[in-house]
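Now for our specimen.

. . .
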Amino acid sequence: MRRPLLTIATAAAIGTTLVGCGGSDDVAGGCSPGPTVEVGGTDALKFDADSYDSTKGCVEFVFVNEGSTPHTLLIKNVKDFKLSIGNEDKGAVDLEPGAYTMFCDIAGHEEAGMIAELTVS
């Protein structure tokens, strides 16, 4: 009887480890990446553009640090999507058509202007 419980506990631990993995290639909602949006973060506490465009579906984001200041990339009202850069991070999220606001949630960055619009058609 102990062997099945040990097997179940081991499988649960491995599953928890795999689900909890972060970093590059995160895919929110289990979608397969389609269009790609490249976003740069600068030491001036800005993204490399004021606006970005994509088509609907599973959008892959490639977030690259163009300086030395760490940054994050989130999309307002989109759950389970956050990229962080020292150098580069990437991930994907399924998006419907609409206007979205991207921002950095590191203290003071959004207030300094680290926001950008994302238009999904």
About this structure: The mean pLDDT is 82. The two ends are 56 Å apart (CA to CA). The longest strand covers residues 57-65. The domain at 22-120 is CATH 2.60.40.420 (Immunoglobulin-like).
